[in-house]
């Protein structure tokens, strides 16, 4: 597809166009990954300095004076880009527009006749650049050994979004919404407990990514798949796909991405599945906002060993075709291990260190699967240390409390690996299905959470937020002090004097404004 003054409409776009004109046609986003081959031929746009569109080999996007369009000769499910590529900010609010999958690097199953290029291509996105996608066929996928570096600034954030956000690019006539495009998938060489020790030692750890077939995993938790900072990811994800329920596309999927990568000042909004999902690895998060995502805001799985600080999560509602839909299942879905036992002894369960989180739930059920909005779900022997976490549920029923344990999730507590410190529950129901359940040693959920008065349990009517609705009120209902985090002896963590994601002591800070701007945008959407 080439977005010039007039559109050349592909089969998918034609269906969208007819639907927008009143035709009774529904198009379900799909991704059909048919393997890779290098592109050839020119897209036909102006060349040289008059064309600011990205280029590689002998192909370049087509410039219409405002936007750059990239057809399926440039990027698709059958093209793997093997050279460095850069997307600059375009003048006059211009947008880089994609119809197909943007695949960076060569995907490789090492059990076949291929070898991972550990010095693969780098995709660079410059501050202020906007990348928009026209359908579920349009994703960003980064292979092992390749990198995505999208480093914006506070004043010029990078945006990955739906083409429907722009009237001139909207051929369907619909407002932008979840599942308009497929999201970002980054595959790394880190450790995941989805692979056996023998597979890692033999260089044959090749796990298939959810949603589409691409491969990740290895034995290097310091791997670098690039980093993102000051970036927005809106209206992404889709599912369920060929594998059925659970085989979904997230807004941002980090598959065994190592600690060489970091993700800071990210705002994920209105995704279909999870906001950020980890499958192993050790990548770090800092200054993250997730609003109105249908499934889990942060999903930690398969042995993630990273760190995170300053995360603001808010479940809300969106209006689609005149109907109000509730968004959000879990603020956190915390899963520890896909596999365990002697064959997986080298790969630990998920055990991150997380600090300063605010999770605001609703009293509705998600439009995605009719499941309730809860703050945290613990499953599969998840272990981790949680500091200064604030969970809020003003209203609810017995089935949608703030904390939910599966029987396998209880193992994380039984094994002594899951604890909260200086944290607050301000919930109508503290634990799903109420009742004071017990762990294997007879300790009740309440006793475990209170942790010898280290943490505090309030109720849904407690005043825990300031009038701004985002920063923690430390002076009204909360009586415990924050953990200043200095005892962690880790420079990653910023010392604090507040519980939750942010304080109102400095409303001019970039983090306060990042949250405020994100929540304001989500409430207007």
Automatic annotation (TrEMBL):
Instruction: Specify the domain of life of the species encoding this protein.
Output: Bacteria
Question: In its UniProt entry, what is this protein called?
Answer: Uncharacterized protein
């Amino acid at each position: 597809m080439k977005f010039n003054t007039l559109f050349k409409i592909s089969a998918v776009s034609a269906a969208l166009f007819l639907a927008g004109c009143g035709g009774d046609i529904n198009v379900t986003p799909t991704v059909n990954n048919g393997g890779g081959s290098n592109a050839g031929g020119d897209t036909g746009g102006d060349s040289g300095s008059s064309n600011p569109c990205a280029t590689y080999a002998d192909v370049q996007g087509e410039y219409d004076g405002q936007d750059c369009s990239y057809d399926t000769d440039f990027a698709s499910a059958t093209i793997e880009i093997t050279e460095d590529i850069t997307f600059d900010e375009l003048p006059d609010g211009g947008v880089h527009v994609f119809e197909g999958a943007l695949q960076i690097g060569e995907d490789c199953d090492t059990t076949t006749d291929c070898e991972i290029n550990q010095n693969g291509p780098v995709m660079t996105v410059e501050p202020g650049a906007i990348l928009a996608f026209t359908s579920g066929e349009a994703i960003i996928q980064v292979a092992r050994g390749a990198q995505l570096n999208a480093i914006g600034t506070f004043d010029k954030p990078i945006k990955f979004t739906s083409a429907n956000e722009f009237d001139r690019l909207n051929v369907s006539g619909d407002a932008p919404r979840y599942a308009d495009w497929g999201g970002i998938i980054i595959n790394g060489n880190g450790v995941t407990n989805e692979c056996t020790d023998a597979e890692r030692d033999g260089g044959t750890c090749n796990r298939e990514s959810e949603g589409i077939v691409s491969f990740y995993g290895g034995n290097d938790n310091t791997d670098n798949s690039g980093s993102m900072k000051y970036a927005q990811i809106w209206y992404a994800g889709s599912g369920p796909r060929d594998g059925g329920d659970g085989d979904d596309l997230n807004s941002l999927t980090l598959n065994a991405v190592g600690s060489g990568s970091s993700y800071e000042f990210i705002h994920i909004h209105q995704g279909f599945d999870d906001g950020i999902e980890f499958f192993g690895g050790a990548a770090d998060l800092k200054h993250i906002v997730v609003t109105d995502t249908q499934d889990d805001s942060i999903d930690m799985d398969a042995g993630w060993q990273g760190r995170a600080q300053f995360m603001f999560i808010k479940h809300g509602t969106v209006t689609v075709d005149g109907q109000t839909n509730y968004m959000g299942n879990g603020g956190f879905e915390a899963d520890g291990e896909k596999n365990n036992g002697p064959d997986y002894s080298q790969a630990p369960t998920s055990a991150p260190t997380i600090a300063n989180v605010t999770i605001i739930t609703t009293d509705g059920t998600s439009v995605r699967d009719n499941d309730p909005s809860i703050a945290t779900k613990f499953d599969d022997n998840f272990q981790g240390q949680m500091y200064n976490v604030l969970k809020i549920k003003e209203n609810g029923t017995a089935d949608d409390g703030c904390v939910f344990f599966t029987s396998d999730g209880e193992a994380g507590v039984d094994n002594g690996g899951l604890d909260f410190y200086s944290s607050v529950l301000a919930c109508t129901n503290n634990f799903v299905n109420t009742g004071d359940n017990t762990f294997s040693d007879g300790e009740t959920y309440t006793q475990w959470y209170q942790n010898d008065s280290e943490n505090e349990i309030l109720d849904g009517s407690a005043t825990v937020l300031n009038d701004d609705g985002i920063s923690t009120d430390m002076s009204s209902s909360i009586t415990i002090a924050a953990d200043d985090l200095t005892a962690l002896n880790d420079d990653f963590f910023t010392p604090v004097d507040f519980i939750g994601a942010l304080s109102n002591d400095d409303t001019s800070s970039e983090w306060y404004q990042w949250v405020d701007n994100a929540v304001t945008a989500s409430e207007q959407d």
